[in-house]
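Forum: Protein Structure Q&A
Topic: Joint prediction for protein chains with partners

I've read a bunch of threads here and the consensus seems to be that you should model interacting components together rather than docking separate models afterwards. I'd like to see that in practice. Below is the full input, 486 residues plus whatever partners are listed. Could one of the regulars post the assembled result?
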Amino acid sequence: MIELPIVRVKERAAEWPTQDVTDQALEDPYWRPLPFVEFALKFHGRCNLACDYCYMYEMADQSWKSKPVAMSRKTIDQVAFRLGEHLRAHADEIAGASVRMHGGEALLAGADQFAYAARAFRNAAPSEVPLRLVTTTNGVLLSDENLLNVLREHRIGVTVSLDGDREGQNRHRKYANGRGSYDQVMRGIEVLNRPDYRDLFDLVLCTIDLENDPLTTYEALLATGAPAVDFLLPLGNWSSPPPGWTAGDGGTAYADWLIPIFERWYSTVPLPAGVRLFENIMTLCLGGHAYTEGLGLNPFQLIVIESDGTIELGDALKSAYEGAPYTGLDVFRNTFDDARLLPGVVARQRKVAGLSPICVSCSIRDICGAGEYSTRYRADSGFLNPSVYCADLAKLICHIRDRALTDVERLRAERAAAD
Amino acid sequence: MALTAAAFAAASAVGVGAAGAASAAESSQANLSEVAATTDQNSALGAVLNRVTADDDVFRPAGTFNR
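Posted by a regular:
Agreed with the consensus. Here's the joint model:
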């Protein structure tokens, strides 16, 4: 069943990143391969929703069809073994690690499987490496208190995907019969907000839909009570542009959608919730480090383990082409160290050396970082391109940068005048 | 290729227009801690300035996984 990705990957052998990327990195005296610190598990391979934009089921890579429905306990045990092995070997290089139990819809795995996996991963991790367990869910099953009790017992943080208000959520996030999921998800969020579970709630994650009003969407996300909100640009690339993408005609539809939200958020005191995208842009503009993929030049140290134990590259690559995340490695035969020199891993840890010439010469490259990796893809040239969101990112970043730095300068001047 | 050229042109126009702000950022770095102390801690700017100046070295997952 894995022959198809192998063939497709070979067809892409000439596309960047090729083996040359690794060879050049190894010749660089200032570069060394980094350990993985984020492990995303395909804990359950199926979903109880049928969102029409889903990168796993609806986009280029269809490898989910050949994978087990759920990760078995044998595979969980082997992942735990490899996790412990990797974290012990690199304990002095890392400040912590996370395991994200993901899907499909991860909560379909059930309470017992979450408890089993959490125990396995915590027991495997060395005590000197703080291990964070998290899950991402569509929220449909969050009203199951048996499940929430297990998440609480094992300190598993929860990210909920939500596209906004009822209209926004139900446009794409539907059951297979076409019925919208908003009511059921909001019931789940109401339970998650109860005092017993409130501390589990990490983030609400919204994929931008230009058809939705931005401020209505933002207010709906805030109304969930989540401590933090994040916005995701829809997956797309130069060969398959995102929906409503207008940069080909000089437009910046996604920046224009986000800027009013930034202004509302930035101007609201006290701050109702963090917005990860905006906070990370501001942090980078002020000389700090970003903590999100898709911005900045921090090395990306994440690996995916599929439900059958195969080791894959970042999940979003499924939007680029069939077999794009494929590595040929699996946790039964390979260590995580075996994946560290794969060109697709090295390319995302090379900072400026991993950017296209256009990005290298750009004045905001250290903030933009060429955007989310999968959005740089173009058939024939691979991932050595700016993001398909180049114009949108530039406009958004410059808007936020100018807004924040103007205020910093003003505050600095006021302080100087007072002294 | 036409799509690429138009998008890059738009991005470049924005970037050049804001070039002055970059030097402002550099000149501000040394004073960020002082500015953070005078900023409303409940504001977006205050929260971010605190994060930048704290340099806490706490591990934070970077992956953005929708479902």
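The two ends of chain B are 32 Å apart (CA to CA).
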